[in-house]
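user: Please review this fold.
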Amino acid sequence: MKKIITILLLTIGLTNVQSQTSRVLTSSEVENIFNSTTNKSLGITYNIFRVYNFTDNDGEKYLVLSEHEYAKNGKGNPQNDTIKAIMVKKTGTTLKKGWDAKDFISKNNGAETKESSIWFWTKYIDLKDLDGDGITDPIVVYGSSGDNGFEDGRVKILVYHKGVKRAIRHQNSVVDSQRKTEVDKEFYTLPTGIRNEVKIIMEKLVGNNQAIFNNYENNLTAKKTIF
């Protein structure tokens, strides 16, 4: 009898967890939902690059990624000087702004080079429930490029758990003395599932030659804040 009750409780719990599969809105959907009036009320001032839509136990939400293009490089690719991510919650027909994150290119970073562009690295963005509480734990990743591309650029990994941000900030460089990773001490209070997902993202960044981290696995295990 106890086993039957336990199974029933688990089943009820699972049905209360809503789908957390995210999808990218089409251009027409973005134009329809995020018109000029709505954008003004939400503080969206740059061109919208991409919008993710997802639903969890807290309701329906949008992650809006916007970038400000200031020029194009020799290959005709956009060069951005500023980016902004905004979390938007939908209640009925009303859209309400939640957290946001803004960054811009640095004229003089740790590698002593001028950055040329900054953009969202969407292949690493993660919108899943990573601690099993039915609420999505967004991980937003973006980076910049310098005179020598990724070698002189920065990488930032932003983790939002229960609406609170924890960040890993990394200055890339092929020179050991100019390479630096800073981890918010609060990062280590995150649930294990979230921290493990960040490690996987860092491993992918290394594998794709977009970042060089100094012995990051051992340093994260030792809960170091600078390495």
Q: What stands out?
A: Residues 137 and 161 are 5 Å apart (CA to CA). The chain has one domain: 20-221.
